[in-house]
Amino acid sequence: MDNLLFDPVGFAVERAGVPIKLSHKEFLLLEYFMHHAGQVITKDSLIAHIWNEDADILPNTVEVYIGYLRTKIDRAFPKETPLIHTRRGFGYILGTSSDIKGV
Fold first, then answer.
1. Residue 32 lies inside a defined structural domain of this protein
2. In angstroms, rounded to a whole number, what is the distance separating the alpha carbons of residues 64 and 70?
3. How many CB atoms are located within 10 Å of the residue 89 CB?
């Protein structure tokens, strides 16, 4: 996807040939996004699939981690097309503008 390479076995991510270091949660978020590329993912869905059910996670926590991931995946590569998009009131989508209608 737009020069983003994701290796779940090797726990490796790179964009435009540059390795990206992600925390464990950031990696899990990206993995979930990759499996649902082009689909709107709600904060509740992310909480249910990324964080332990016993953990008391607020939606703001998801926003913080999405911000971390955006910084590393999108903002660190200003010449590249952003990949993480927000659908206000709905959730987040991973993909390029050509992959996602309405972006």
1. yes
2. 10
3. 5
Sign of CA dihedral 23, 25, 31, 33: negative
C-alpha span between 67 and 100 (Å, rounded): 20
pLDDT band, very low/low/confident/very high, at 103 (cuts 50, 70, 90): very low
Radius of gyration for the chain, computed over Cα atoms and rounded to the nearest angstrom: 13
Domain count, the chain: 1
Mean per-residue pLDDT of the chain: 89
Three-state SS at 10: coil
pLDDT, tens only, 12-35: 999 999 999 999 999 999 999 999
Domain, as residue range, for 83:
4-94
Residue that the structure tokens 């509740």 belong to: 44
CATH of residue 77: 1.10.10.10
